[in-house]
Amino acid sequence: MQDFHADCEKITAVLLKSRTGEFDLESILFLKLRGLGIHDLGCIGECINLERLDLSGNNISNLAPLASLRLLSVLNLSANRISNLDPLRSCDSLQNLNIAGNVISSTENLHCLASLRKLENIRLKDNTYNYTNPVCRNALYRTVVLEMFPNIKVLDGERIVGRGSDLYQLCKDIDDTIKAGLYKNGQLIEHPDCKPWVEDSYWEIKRSNNAIIEEAYKQFNDVLHECRLLNNRATHVISQTERSMSLKKQPKQFAI
């Protein structure tokens, strides 16, 4: 048991091979090492073709071995002890980075990521798990990060641009207005001169005439239909199996 614990504290070739079933470390594309008590990344840098890596819930502070992972696109480092992100500057393919629940103290620590042109999703806090970083307490944190990463699409799980961003901003504005004092003594203050938030046609679903999009709608519906059929078949098989097992458990009766 002691040797196994030691292996988990440091990433070794034995640990990687046992976790993935791959004999060659360069063949590993996806890797999940969540909550193992790891503090030393060891030979993780030898997995040069790694694309998705989950190291959340460990005791990691030094990211130097990750510098060689040029193909890494999704990286989860939440709930660790990380303060320096500099080794990630060479992860050119990085698109999605989760560093919530660490000890990033200043926006200056994020400058090393500014050169990552493909980076579009960054998370420094996660309200679901109550993960955050000291930098998030800065009143200008959000503004500074958005200026630093002009191509970002999602920050802390909130869509900044693209489909859904307008709706999100609308809901946020409504919440902020309510918090600002629309209610007095538990009663909603009436404003007869209020104008609609959006135009009447805002909520209408506009179907595109683009043939490619129409075909995509059709293919999606076909896949959805197949999923429903598979679900029905699976339910039927499970029901038959449960019925068969219940019959086997019944005590046999012998006629005398």
TrEMBL record:
Domain of life per record: Eukaryota
Pfam families associated with the record: LRR_9
Keywords on record: Leucine-rich repeat, Repeat
Protein name as it appears in the record: Leucine rich repeat containing 61
Organism: Amphiprion ocellaris
Gene that encodes the chain: LRRC61
